[in-house]
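dumping these here so i dont lose them again. two proteins, back to back, each one seq then structure tokens. dont judge the mess
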Amino acid sequence: MATEKREPSTRGFSKLPEECVTYMLSFTSPRDICRLSLVSKSFLAAAQIDLLWESFLPPDVAEILSRATHPVDYSSRKELYFRLCQPLLVDEGKLSFHLEKSTGKKTYMISPETMYIPWIPHPQHWTWISLPHSRFSKQAELVSVCWLEIVSSIDSRLLSQKTMYTAYMIYKLNPDSYGLDSNSQKASIKLGAHSQENRVSLEPDDEEDEEEEEEKQIQLREDGWLEMVLGEIYNDQGDEGDIEIKFLDTEELHWKKGLVFAGFEIRPTKKKVDAKLLR
């Protein structure tokens, strides 16, 4: 006679002190907590406790809040966590910070105003514009250059430790853009003695197989901007200085126009990580 399968029970947890349940949940993730709170009243009760959400907030959360362009209102640590999962402008609006909702890992986006871009002060080469649905108040629009170089950096101490990060270029292409489809464009990311360099192209490849969507170098974001993968780097203890990010189109010195640049974003890598990058 076939044995009847029994669904796993969580009723035993109801006999545990709330502090024990909270302690166990602190070893999971915010995503797991939200799921578990749907199947058990004990988990649901523990999911409201400040001490639990304190464990998912970054250790330097007070310092992050002190750098915020506008005050952040919250009534609990749980509310603060989810408030920080939305972009928060810091450092006089030159950086954007948020937490990855499912893990609590840090993400930063860097404004073009802080970057090294040759000829950016000259309106015949670059101009500053302001577009809706943009993270920062200003975006850099390319008018005409033959040497396209963008260099930025971020202190590795600002990022989550023991975390693989992917850097992205956030941009748009105007309808009248030209000279931006070169296959000699390069991107690099460097931290300490470790670096990665990749060939990239700002022009999306419309002929790529739809089944390979997740592997595409360029993706359309929900906010309407394009993002292009620049490279990956592993942030170990966050003590190796600045992470340097570069985009270069300097090999073919033809004239280029029509790039609208919103910034570099560096966020936790979601796909499987190459073991060689984990030092």
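---- next one ----
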Amino acid sequence: MGQNNYSSLHGFILLGFSDHPKLEVVLSGVVTIFYLITLMGNIAIILASLLDSHLHTPMYFFLRNLSFLDLCFTTSIVPQMLVNLWGHDKTISYVGCVIQLYVYMWLGSIECLLLAVMSYDRFTAICKPLHYLVIMNPHLCLKMIIMVWAISLANSVVLCTLTLNLHRCGNNLLDHFLCELPAMVKIACVDTTAVEMSVFALGIVIVLTPLLLILISYGYIAQAVLRMKSIAGQRKAINTCGSHLTVVFIFYGTIIYMYLQPGNSASKDQGKFLTLFYTIITPSLNPLIYTLRNKDMKDALKKLIRVDYESTKTKNWKS
């Protein structure tokens, strides 16, 4: 039998938090609650921004994409995670693990690039307000989104394929609650330098380059806001960018902090909790961040609730 055939036949075992049985019970409840919040919050944002004509702007087009991304991101992880947390069976099929690996890497890369695109949108809106609608036209917005999804897919295909081609010598124990690339690399029984260098190089392109562009965009935005003579204008600009900047800080802050941790046994559990934070909790916070700081979105959600209430009331009256 080939070196990787064992994993192909029997799948993988996700150790996750199996050494803390009581914690698993608590986590299963927490994950379920945050998953439901993620579903309801992001679906509400998508529907509200689609149904309200006032929100048919580039900013909300990108926000809809972020909400859809968060829905896909959590759904690719949570169902399998809950199955493993609820029962004694910690296995995941080989095909299921491969799909999760590719999708997780793809969607995670998209979020990095999408946040950079959203920062460029805010830069254009504040620094070039008179030309905003001309520059950020629907055709350009669509092209940017297609590029983001395509570049991220290419990144996922390259890195995940390199990782899966590593010989594992029958090792199928993943010290994580999902099929993540670093966890897959760790169980390889051959030299992984080439893969690690590829991950590092593409990590600079996919993670650090977008972060640099975001910081440059907000540098120009800060200069533009400080030059504004109107306090009301400054407040509006800060509110407009505040939500996005908060999401950027949470997402990038968690990732950077996690990967700067030393690889000792204590940091492994810490790494799992940090992964849990930015894959489960952050997507549920995004809708709250954007609605609490955004008057237009709050008004759109009120309209959506009102329409749903009136529709339910009409159905009850007819019955």
